[in-house]
Specification:
Three copies of one chain form a homotrimer.
Chain A lengths: L5 E6 L6 H9 L4 E5 L7 H9 L10 E6 L3 H14 L7 E4 L4 H13 L8 E5 L4 H12 L3 E6 L2 H10 L5 H5 L1 E5 L3 H8 L4 E4 L10 H4 L7 E4 L16 E5 L2 E4 L1 H19 L6 E2 L1 H11 L1
Parallel strand pairs in A: 1-2, 1-3, 3-4, 4-12, 5-6, 5-8, 6-7, 8-9, 9-11
Antiparallel strand pairs in A: 10-11
Chain lengths: ~290, ~290, ~290
């Protein structure tokens, strides 16, 4: 008989995320251990406790979930956790700090339903943030020419570099660009079939006037749920909604898919003891869901 | 199929209450998430995590329990939590910091089995504390004339005011009074059919000599379990026990009812997603239990 | 119907042990409440919450587990927790800070399968540490003449004293000894049938050369899993493995038994509400497992 499924929530924040905890329960885990204020210095003993308690196939019934609002902190915890493993002594681990991986996967998955990503130019507005960076990475991996757009060229370039794409071929598809004024934004997105806005809550990144001058635009995805929204003419609840000939997805429209991917990714953790689920793996799980 | 029942324990103390956690399990919840050191500044993200993970009728399977030893802190957390809700986006929430609501409800419920509360004069000794204030509130709402007694008139008046009764009619039934000496206490309680002592552990509030000069007294309820008890002639285990013609309830006698109310209130949280259980609602649940 | 089994994990560290939590689940508990940063000053309310929520036979369905990396801190928490109990108002409690009790029990149990402990001389290298002290205590109680060996005679003597054996007869069987050089180690262990090495990770306490001059040696148990191991000629995975005529147990070989004892001890907690499981009780549980 399989051991009860234990998910160990490792969160860098002062309180472990309730959101992640509820999704874990709804994914079917039996026991959740919640850890807050987890630092790279403190994670080893927690990971060892997961590795050294169950043996053989039972190791697949223990898994780690790395969350918290700070994605960079989460990435560091993921590296440290994976660094504790050796040989078959390992447990599966998923990174979804701030929901960045599941959100980016859901956004790119939405786009892929309407576009052949390998044939398009895409723009990611506010592409320097954690969700934006992951969307850029997933789009470039899928073959798109991607413009990573920020108010600062320096930050855009740094983000493009830190994405660390797997091959030079993928790296060559990413172009960092600065855009602060409406004209600069128009220059950046005018020829793009896809625009994803991954900016902060309440900041409009693509105005109605700029948008009206983007004849190539086919899909607009806005991940900001708090008005003013990030893309004029996209509503929060839009989910493949056509308006003026452009298919739109809002934050809540993407959110349903994000939740499904999140749950499916947690279930995947318990299929073997060697899963490491970061952006690409989580996107692949999303594609399997269809 | 209904989702697993998740109770999120939000506690302002450095350790979330074991007491509240055990009662939650015995009320039949499936998963308990325990949060300690919860502050008004930090509660929003926790509440959002509860609100934004399950949809529609499933929202009724997630609920909040606000505890901790500091009732004022708990009240502040309750206001903040309820303030996060909007429209149908909400989960049920119960406040029982320091057990104040369930204890006051159990005490007033005990009295109501022997007296028509709308026809009596009642005295709440140490009525300024969290349990005392709630007992005063519940008695006045039930129609009793209530004397809120403290060593300081200033504190008694402030407490009577902070109870913030729902109507002026209710407010008019509450009289703040000071009593430090035996004579003052006698003046305050002499004509009362009901006395509830809600004072600190180990402090006698009603002596045998004063009590013997209270001919109207029919029910005496003492919520202090640590000797010396709060009311002379009432034993901790008394539960409707008649002594010298007065029916007595001690802390342990009230405690059994308190536990039943506590469990029933937690179960009530999961019947819909819009319950807000404070003193009055918890007392109503107690009345339904009979 | 029995209440759900609740185990309350009280841990003095900044994060409650994942290891202990997973073992608790695998022992069949229904709900685990994890508490970290538990201090002697803070434990009372936690213990009261366990004692005052369930009554009568149901008290046996709530139990305490005291863990953490600091065994002295754990011992202090155990004393404080037991001090909260009165009369039948108590719950079962187990101490296994740093796994010291289950590890020492497993090591002594391994030895007892090959030797009549009441007839032997035994040496515990690094006997001043928490596992070493418990191994010394268990061996002396079983009738062995035990040499508690440390680099410092002063520390060895202090440890022998702090073990506080139950009777003078047991105390008389414990001899503190200092050994720093190979010759001193040889003097200390030469006539022993059993050697247990309970030292720090990566420190060799018994070299091949010394070991080759110990003709009486029959069983060698090394609790250090990180190379260089504590006893030359014992491998981590050894579990009753004969090499050069000596039966060896390594850390992983002992570990399987330790886990079985740990799980069985947790299950024992729920058989009644009055168990206090420290080294001797946990060793007795191990003996019953055979």
């Amino acid at each position: 008989m399989a051991k009860p499924k234990i998910l160990i929530q490792l969160d860098a924040d002062a309180h472990a995320s309730v959101f992640d905890a509820v999704v874990a329960v709804d994914a079917g885990i039996d026991h959740l251990f919640q850890y807050h204020s987890v630092t790279p210095e403190k994670i080893r003993d927690l990971v060892y406790g997961a590795m050294f308690t169950r043996g053989g196939p039972d190791l697949a019934s223990t898994a780690l979930f790395i969350g918290g609002s700070n994605v960079a902190a989460g990435e560091q915890l993921l590296r440290k956790a994976v660094g504790c493993f050796f040989g078959p002594m390992r447990v599966s681990v998923m990174l979804d700090a701030n929901g960045a991986n599941t959100t980016a996967a859901a956004a790119v998955l939405a786009a892929s339903k309407h576009l052949d990503l390998s044939q398009i130019q895409a723009a990611v507005l506010a592409g320097t943030g954690p969700v934006g960076q992951r969307a850029v990475r997933l789009l470039a991996r899928a073959g798109a020419q991607v413009r990573l757009i920020s108010r600062s060229l320096e930050k855009a370039a740094a983000a493009a570099e830190s994405i660390a794409p797997s091959t030079e071929e993928v790296a060559a598809r990413i172009t960092p660009l600065a855009a602060t004024t409406a004209e600069e934004t128009l220059d950046a997105v005018a020829h793009c079939e896809l625009v994803i806005a991954a900016g902060a809550a309440g900041v409009e990144l693509l105005s109605a006037s700029v948008r009206s001058r983007c004849p190539a635009l086919q899909v607009a995805i806005d991940l900001n749920a708090v008005p003013p929204l990030g893309i004029a003419g996209v509503e929060s609840h839009d989910k493949g909604t056509a308006r003026d000939g452009v298919i739109g997805y809002g934050a809540l429209g993407v959110g349903g898919t994000k939740m499904k991917i999140h749950r499916a990714a947690i279930q995947r953790l318990f299929q073997s003891n060697d899963q490491v689920l970061d952006a690409e793996q989580i996107y692949a799980i999303g594609r399997e869901l269809g």
